[in-house]
Amino acid sequence: GEVYNNSEGAIPFATLALVQFFLTHFVEVKRWKDFENPGGQGEAGTFFGLESSLAGKELSYPGGPFDPLNLSKDEAALADFKLKEIKNGRVAMLAMLGFFAQYKATGKGPIDNLFAHLADPWHTTFCDNGVSLPFL
Asked: What are the pLDDT digits (tens) for 46-87?
């Protein structure tokens, strides 16, 4: 946030975004190449000598150091974990939508709104901003 951006030693946003773009791009290209050539990312010479860690059980699930608790040993449990991961991602997307809507309605972020509600819980609710319930 703004406090970090104004602090001494903060990484400039453009630099951070550029590094994030290249790192994410690299990982996604590796994943796409695994779809094109299943198991190909575990072949020698494809990832700086660390190929064995990318040879997973199936496409885009590398295993190895990415599964330190060996949760993928049981196929039924792995299928259940995959389903839970997708459901958790969907809930997280809804939560972000709630954060955006909350900011649009109040002009403050979720933490500021939480503190305002905790300071006066009977008068600071979703009903008092004039946007959440426009008919009131």
From this structure: 677 666 666 666 666 666 667 778 887 888 988 898 899 999
Residues in the chain: 136
Q: Tokens 């190449």 identify what position?
A: 33
Most distant CA pair in the chain: distance in Å? 66
**CA–CA distance, 48 with 2 (Å, rounded to integer):** 38
Quote the tokens at residue 1.
Answer: 């946030």
- pTM to 2 decimal places: 0.57
- Which SS3 state, helix, strand or coil, does residue 135 take? coil
Exposure b/e, 78-107, CB count within 10 A at least 16 = b: beeeeeeeeeeeeeeeeeeeeeeebeeebe
Q: Which tokens belong to 123?
A: 């008068």
What are the pLDDT digits (tens) for 12-22? 888 889 999 99
> At which residue do the structure tokens 């997307």 appear?
93
